[in-house]
Fold this sequence. Notes:
Blueprint: H1 2-20, E1 27-31, E2 39-44, E3 47-52, E4 54-56, E5 59-69, E6 74-77, E7 85-90, E8 96-98, E9 101-104, E10 109-113, E11 118-120, E12 125-127, E13 132-135, E14 139-142, E15 147-149, E16 164-169, E17 176-180, E18 187-188, E19 194-195, E20 203-205, E21 210-215, E22 217-221, E23 224-227, E24 231-246, E25 251-253, E26 260-261, E27 263-267, E28 271-273, E29 281-292, E30 296-301, E31 310-321, E32 332-337, E33 346-356, E34 360-365, E35 374-384, E36 395-400, E37 411-421, E38 425-427, E39 439-449, E40 460-465, E41 484-494, E42 498-503, E43 512-522, E44 526-531, E45 539-542, E46 545-549, E47 553-555, E48 561-563, E49 569-571, E50 581-591, E51 596-598, E52 608-617, E53 620-621, E54 630-632, E55 644-648, E56 691-692, E57 707-708, E58 737-740, E59 746-749, E60 752-753, E61 756-757
Parallel strand pairs: 3-6, 5-7, 6-9, 7-10, 8-11, 9-12, 10-13, 11-17, 13-21, 17-22, 20-23, 21-24, 22-27, 23-28, 24-29, 27-29, 28-30, 29-31, 30-32, 31-33, 32-34, 33-35, 34-36, 35-37, 36-38, 37-39, 38-40, 39-41, 40-42, 41-43, 42-44, 43-45, 43-46, 44-47, 45-50, 46-50, 47-51, 50-52, 51-54, 52-55, ...
Antiparallel strand pairs: 1-5, 2-3, 4-5, 14-15, 14-16, 16-24, 18-19, 24-25, 24-26, 48-49, 56-57, 58-59, 60-61
Amino acid sequence: MSQLRHLVWVSSTSFLLWLSNPGSTLAQIVPDATLPNSTAAISEGNIIRIERGTQVGGNLFHSFTKFSLLTGAEAFFNNSLDTQNIFSRVTGSDISQVDGLMRANGIANLFLINPNGIIFGPNAKLNIGGSFLASTANSIQFSNGTEFSATNPSAPPLLTINVPIGLQFNESNAGVIRVQGLGHTFRFGQTGGLKPNTTTNGLAVQPGKTLALVAGEIALEGGNLKAESGAIELWSVTRGSLPMQVSSEQISFNNEQLAELGNINLSGAASVDSSGSQGGSFQIQSRNLKLEQGSIIVSLTGGYQPGKSSTINALDAVELIARTADGRMGSGFFVQTNGEGKGGDLTVTTDRLLVRDGASIGMGTDSSGNSGALRVQARDVQLGGLSANGGRLTGIFSNPTLDSTGVGGDVIIDAKQVSLENGAVISVSTFGAGQSGNITVRANDVQIRGTSATGGIGSGFYARTSLSNLASSPPPLTGNAGNVTVIADRLSLENRGTINVANFGKGNAGNINIRAATVELANNSSIRATQRQAEQGNITIESQDLRLWRNSLITTDASNIIIFDTGQTIANNDISTNGGNIIINTKTLVALENSDITANAQQSFGGRVRINASGIFGTTLRSQTTPKSDITATSNLGAEFSGMVQINTLDINPSAGLVALSENFTDNSSEIAQVCSAYSSNSFVLTGRGGLPEDPNQTLLGSTVWRDLRPRRGVSSTSVTVSIAASPPTPTIEANGWLKNANGEIELVAKSINGVSQNPWDNVAKCSVSK
């Protein structure tokens, strides 16, 4: 807000200083003498006729030290009819302030560059046959390498018949373009569709042409830009070269040379409008883009031809905030078809997308034409809350309206994080005979939590056919609901967050497909696929970890209520559809505190539930729902109408297969008759299985062996005879005695000759082998 006040103060002060200048007139258009054939400015009342200039082929060049118009003044470029492009530059140090009419002959394109800045007042208008470009660039570049420079006019003018190929910005503090006005009159009609702007103030070009503003910063302060069935180009460039393509029909740009971008701000119900019978387009390029106070960027297709694709690219952030002062319109981007032609597609690319306080992005159809698709590519997407007065929702919408028979467009979001809070929604719902589109969200982390301030709307993804409260006699709901697909590392729904596909009319419900490593529902959150009459929707969840807490729900129940888009509900007396199907593939399923998985039906057959899991905790199959956590597929008609529940687990029971340990341990020391001698570099090792080692907390026994708990088996012993080769090596005998040497010291010895002990208490070392 402080920035807005600053902009308004600067522009207002500039006009006041201009009015207080004793030498001021209705126009301050002063030519310079930098061209081979200088420009002439001739005053005729409130009209300044601009003559002469330097003509080179189809290009006409004008140069001024000052170029400004007060309210009621007119600058008339009196060019020849064969002129294709009129290039005008301001070489002085003053900002151009234009609050009058700029007019030219024929179908020439008009270019105005002033590096100091340009302000278009609320009464500024255009009456030209071609496209219009206003810029604070330093120069216009041509294909033969020459430039038409406003900051270096003393250079020898090498004017050319070539077409312009770019704009050059040399200074980091490139000038600002401001467009002032009283704001737009866009509103939503009774059918839910956006109605055209009726205001006539603002800058506008002829149908099919381009209106382009290229500056270091662009600020629309209630200003309106209009290019009927044409193109609007807004580029905030602070430094570098911006390639440009110019034709008799349109002017377009690209950023192949990676010019540095600045900021674009729309406030005070400003509008950028390329609507028309053929459907226009818009391209917005900046570092930051901010729309507030009901400002909008819009393209409505009114005829049978398809609308064109539009692009919004903001390197750092796109912010859509709040509504108009009267609450009729929220800030946002809107692409819609009101005719037979398909609506245009919209792509929004940014690092951070923020939509809050009643702002929205809206795609849709209000006719037989199909809606275009919306694609959002961002690192962080944040949607949050109703408007301050509790009016329309905040979010992303692609909705066929009450009168529509067309197909709604898809919403595709690719992001690192997606967050919906306080009643924000992504909706592809339909309110009549039109078909719903689909929602696809691919992200690392998806968080859906909270409700609107009134508690009537839960944040979430919605693809459904639903009644609208906008009409007293809504049409029959015959359209099919769309699908919702979420692919993420983590999906979290909290505090009544929801994913909902539903059809409360005669069409089919859509499907919900979730693939995420972790899926968590908490505090009355839900994943729902509900239906009234036709084919029921299905839910498929693939995860590593699925958790439901505190009254959360996964359900394909046939619904017994009808829900309005505002959250209001009424009874549904026609509930003859079957329950849908639920398929869950997960390693761990936890459902606690009355959290249910249900595929129930009211007056028909229950659905099917199939769960494949390594472990299921806190819930079990039941014949009916209880205050505990349940898995059900029942019908109110009775058990014979119940559905099917199939639960596949690894069947690992920690208490299964246990046997009592014997209190009588087998002493392995008794298994070894005698110590065996190592002979001929051989060894004998006795190992076992199924026993217990010695307790490490107790003193070790003299003979530490493994205690086998298994009973001894009766086995036969077989004597093994070993053939001994001649002159065998002297075997190593285990110490089996002691003696005192000549020094009186005790030594451990093994005294045997050919296996015969020389000590009477020595036992002969023998080894028997059992097998």
